[in-house]
Design a protein that fits this description.
256 residues, mainly beta, 13 strands, 11% helix, globular
């Protein structure tokens, strides 16, 4: 898969040279908050205040909803995007910048794994989406995929809509071992951190969101997401739950 993603990057550059570009930026700014539960043993519910920045210029897309950067290689009935992103689902993730770490003894002297720069590819067909992320920073060399289906928005009124998505995350063995496994060097049985090797995992998830367009350029969004964690991850001494939840509320303003 890594070779496929690298080859697709060369295709991206070739297509870009010939692609017709828009000369106008479309920028959306906003802010909000999130309540997040994590799978980690003894980890308190996290409360985060978060900015929202999203921008588009022709086929280029930037921001929190697109990864660091993505480029629309093909824009027809089947959409294909290539890009770069940063992922860090680790215990002391830099993406949870105000995290309250666990007091569980299992994390005593635990060396948290590093986040990763990943090459991304997304295939979209109507409501179906398949997104792939391959580590290119030589941290885990792992691949993760997200396969989902988004239902057509359900209009409750001319301004209020319901958005629903469900799918699965497919996590390679290298991914689960990097973030949830415990190597022989990391093991500390006196703290309950026994050696653990995880296999690949399949995590189903569902998301529902309400969006309210209370002015032409202003929107409020409330979203709830729940994920079930595969036994391969749940059985890690670092993990204590089969379910995690996220509740986010954002207010955004579209500049163009």
């Amino acid at each position: 898969m890594k070779k496929v993603l690298n080859a697709a990057w060369f295709l991206l550059v070739a297509v870009q040279a010939q692609a017709e570009q828009s000369t106008q930026w479309q920028v959306t700014l906003g802010a909000g908050g999130a309540i997040i539960t994590t799978p980690w043993a003894g980890m308190a519910t996290q409360h985060q205040s978060l900015p929202f920045v999203s921008a588009q210029y022709g086929r280029w897309r930037f921001g929190v909803d697109q990864g660091l950067v993505s480029y629309r290689v093909l824009d027809s009935q089947v959409g294909i995007d290539m890009g770069l992103n940063f992922r860090d689902p680790s215990y002391d993730s830099v993406l949870l910048y105000k995290s309250d770490l666990s007091e569980d003894p299992v994390f005593t002297s635990y060396d948290d794994p590093s986040g990763e720069l990943v090459a991304t590819m997304a295939l979209n067909y109507h409501g179906f989406s398949a997104r792939f992320a391959q580590d290119i920073s030589n941290e885990s060399s792992s691949l993760a995929a997200n396969v989902s289906y988004t239902l057509s928005p359900w209009a409750l009124s001319d301004k209020l809509r319901v958005h629903t998505r469900f799918g699965v995350r497919l996590l390679s063995e290298d991914y689960t071992q990097h973030f949830y496994g415990i190597s022989k060097m990391q093991a500390a049985p006196q703290y309950g951190r026994t050696e653990y090797h995880s296999q690949g995992a399949i995590n189903p998830f569902a998301r529902i969101a309400l969006s309210y367009q209370f002015a032409p350029q202003w929107q409020a969004v409330a979203a709830y997401r729940s994920e079930f964690w595969d036994d391969e991850i749940y059985h890690s001494p670092l993990v204590s739950t089969h379910y995690t939840h996220q509740l986010m509320v954002f207010f955004t303003y579209r500049l163009r």
